[in-house]
Amino acid sequence: MDPNCLFCKIVARAIPGKIAFENERVVAFEDIAPQAPTHLVVVPREHFASTLEVTPARRAVVGELVEVAAQLARERGFADEGYRLVYNTNRAAGQTVFHLHLHLLGGRRFGWPPG
Ligand code: 5GP
Ligand code: ZN
Fold it and tell me: Is 50 strand, coil or helix?
């Protein structure tokens, strides 16, 4: 855990978060500023900054983030209709929290290309 990291604090329940799912490796919680009817952030418990720090040892947990997001999409009823998964990486993509996270957005239509 990085003591200065917001998402580490949510994972450790040091600050409040609306947790939607958790297991030994992965936690999903509601985004504080939702951009869709469902907007969850899915994170590994392990702290690392971004997709640039995915290594062979981390491949499994990164895959599990996608699997957990798909399961949450099914449970919330928009899997068939469709949903958007996003990893923002560094400045040009608007990354603001440097603990790897997968955005799960669902419940509305999404434009392409994204803004
Ligand atoms: P990024 O822009 O780094 O891809 O995404 C960071 C996300 O974290 C943003 O969507 C932002 O709304 C969310 N966020 C920022 N602060 C908090 C917080 O204190 N709690 C929760 N649940 N989400 C947060
Ligand atoms: Zn962290």
Answer: coil
- The separation between CA 67 and the C-alpha centre of its own chain, rounded to angstroms, equals 11
Q: Could you read off the pLDDT of 23-68 as tens digits, one per residue?
A: 999 999 999 999 999 999 999 999 999 999 999 999 999 999 999 9
Q: How far apart are CA 13 and CA 8, in angstroms?
A: 8
Contact 5, 47 (CB under 8 A): yes
How far is 70 from 103, CA to CA, in rounded Å? 11
**Distance (Å, whole) CA 21 – CA 69:** 10
Cα–Cα–Cα angle for 102, 108, 114, nearest 5°?
60
CB 92 near ligand 1, within 6 Å? no
Residue pair 11/27 in contact (Cβ under 8 Å)? The answer is: yes
Nearest-ligand number for the alpha carbon of 97: 1
Note the ligand closest to the C-alpha atom of 95: 1
Residue nearest to atom 14 of ligand 1 (CA): 32
